[in-house]
Inverse folding.
């Protein structure tokens, strides 16, 4: 997982001057132009959702990412979301990802203040640093049982967040000191609360078990 979080803390114009474009190709078959980077050009062919550039992300309303896209006659699986892919999309309300996505990288939704819902796949294994930083309209997040790692400050600035439904029986590793300031409740599978409370990081939060 690459990290460019230092750039996230700079004014957007400075980041843009350093790197105008950060994608290999685009596709609009779903009705929204989505940008991609090729991550494997040998079978299985794979791509990641990429950032258009640091000065412009045009995503609006609800965006659905397909599980596969064509490029040059090849059919590529969409397996990850790269850092800053949707960052600063002020009009983005919802993002829906396919089961093929296993990683959402650093700052993917950084500063998406109108974002209300992200439908994450059941095979998701990792969420990077500051993925939902300052997504102040999100009230609820549901994370799958497959999740193994959450990045530092992943939910920092999510001031409206009331609940996180975390279906992982084993507490995900946190790649920092916290997942951010979460005032709401983190719901975990029945019988798993003790495992979370034994963690130096997870015990900082209000942990309750889901109903069976």
């Amino acid at each position: 997982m690459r990290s460019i979080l230092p750039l996230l803390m700079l004014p957007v114009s400075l980041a843009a001057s350093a790197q105008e474009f950060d994608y290999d190709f685009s596709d609009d078959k779903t009705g929204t132009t989505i940008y991609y980077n090729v991550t494997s050009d040998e079978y299985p062919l794979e791509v990641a959702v990429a950032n258009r550039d640091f000065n412009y992300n045009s995503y609006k309303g609800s965006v659905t990412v397909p599980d596969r896209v064509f490029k040059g006659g090849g059919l590529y699986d969409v397996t990850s979301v790269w850092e800053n892919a949707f960052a600063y999309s002020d009009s983005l309300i919802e993002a829906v990802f396919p089961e093929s996505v296993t990683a959402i990288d650093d700052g993917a939704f950084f500063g998406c203040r109108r974002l209300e819902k992200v439908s994450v796949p059941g095979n998701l294994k990792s969420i990077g640093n500051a993925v939902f930083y300052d997504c102040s309209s999100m009230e609820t997040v549901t994370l799958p049982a497959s999740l193994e790692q959450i990045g530092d400050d992943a939910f920092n600035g999510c001031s409206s967040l009331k609940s996180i439904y975390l279906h992982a029986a084993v507490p995900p590793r946190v790649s920092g000191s916290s997942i951010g300031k979460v005032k709401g409740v983190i719901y975990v599978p029945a019988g798993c609360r003790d495992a979370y409370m034994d963690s130096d990081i997870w015990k900082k939060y209000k942990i309750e078990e889901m109903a069976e």
Observations:
- The longest strand covers residues 74-81.
